[in-house]
Amino acid sequence: MSDKLAIDGGTPTRTAPFPAWPIYDEREDRNLLEVLRSGQWGIGGAKVAQFEQRFAESQGARFGVCVPNGTLALQMALNALGIGPGDEVITTPYTFIATASAAIQQGAVPVFVDVDLDTYDIDPAQIEAAITPRTKAIVPVHLAGRPADMDAIMEIARRHSLRVLEDACQAWGAAWRGRKVGAIGDLGAFSFQSSKNVSAGEGGIVITNDEALGEMCWSLHNVGRVRQGAWYQHEIIGGNLRMSEWQAAVLLAQLERLPEHTARRDANARYLSEALSEVAGVTPLPFDERITQHAHHLFICRYEPAAFGGRSRDEFVAALRAEGIETASVGYTLPLNQNNAIRRSAAALTRLGGREWPLADDGLSALAACPNAEWATQHTVWLFQNTLLGDSADMDSIVAAVRKIQRGWE
Ligand SMILES: Cc1ncc(COP(=O)(O)O)c(C=O)c1O
């Protein structure tokens, strides 16, 4: 094979695609046809309730309430915790916008605490400095499927009487010291959107071990109804956040495949980490024995331009994709503390009684700096989860592509 880089017109390291996502078989077919033929496509069907029970149980929770997506799961969970105007919610800036926008949609202000660059999760050592009398909850994100340090987070929450909502939207099956995530805090929110390891295109669930919170979520997702009440009895204001039977039909089948898929992703992630540890400048995040199950939604590496002739991360990812590693991505390109929509909302919510952030020159709130998250948005490479469903030859091809680029840019 010529050593000319594919991005410069050379031959790509590989041309075969990585395993396609989503994966489905006759189980999805059968479940969907069952829903179709039952005529129970929404209310009255059995599949949503069945999935709620199975998924909650698989994560070690007693209650589960399915909703249309992960964004609404987070917002409903904050609503169930009574979080609203004037409140502050501590979370991380290196995540999908929904983690923070859910708080804003409840009228609360997200307060960002920087990530630890060994985990890309919230740095527990920095949480206490961000707590004020307005703080009501901590929302850790188990980013990439890697559980955040739930021992430290729960201990801080207990000491300050804060609630904990786990954003487990990337962490199906993940476990921290033997305990499945989402059921460690007060509530846990999951997503089943297209890219996710368990997917119905769209979908979400909130799980909990707290019966009162479980009932509150049920009511909030069902226009304020009460479970044993009359059809037109609405005791609180809720939305219509019910999942359809179609989604649950697909999810029941997807969940059956999760353990085997997680095991395969884990084996490949360990193999790839080991192989990449021999290559300077592309550093997979270290494993931590307290993480008894990583969900591997993303395989994350830190990228050092100096090891690649000073080329930027964006150039590196473009070169990697050209070499046939088409599942490589630059990931999040802006930490949420620098997102103008969030800064504008923080400025507006300040007027409703939230924390007074100083205004920057552009008139929007200057939120606390998060240098690690800012660094991460410029120096991180992601591989999507389906990459890890390949075999060891697929992993070897990633390493070969990285080495080839490194030689090309020396
Ligand atoms: C960390 C995180 N939080 C929240 C969400 C929102 O989920 P959804 O896309 O299902 O609304 C996602 C996924 O997109 C996510 O990755």
In short:
The chain has helices at residues 26-38, 47-58, 70-80, 98-105, 150-159, 211-221, 245-276, 313-322, 340-351, 371-379, 392-408, and strands at 63-67, 88-91, 109-112, 135-139, 163-167, 175-176, 179-180, 187-191, 204-208, 282-284, 291-293, 298-303, 328-329, 380-384.
Give the amount of beta strand, in percent. 5-15%
Low-confidence stretches are none
Order of helices and strands: HHEHEHEEHEEEEEHHEEEHEHHEH
- The side-by-side strand order for the widest beta sheet comes to 1-9-8-5-4-2-3
Shape: globular
Attached small molecules: pyridoxal-5'-phosphate
End-to-end span in angstroms?
Answer: 18 Å
Structural class: alpha/beta
Rounded Rg:
22 Å
Secondary structure topology:
Elements: H1 26-38, H2 47-58, E1 63-67, H3 70-80, E2 88-91, H4 98-105, E3 109-112, E4 135-139, H5 150-159, E5 163-167, E6 175-176, E7 179-180, E8 187-191, E9 204-208, H6 211-221, H7 245-276, E10 282-284, E11 291-293, E12 298-303, H8 313-322, E13 328-329, H9 340-351, H10 371-379, E14 380-384, H11 392-408
Parallel strand pairs: 2-3, 2-4, 4-5, 5-8
Antiparallel strand pairs: 1-9, 6-7, 6-11, 8-9, 10-12, 12-14, 13-14
Helix pairs in contact: 1-7, 2-7, 3-4, 3-6, 7-11
The protein binds pyridoxal-5'-phosphate.
Pyridoxal-5'-phosphate binds next to α3 and α4.
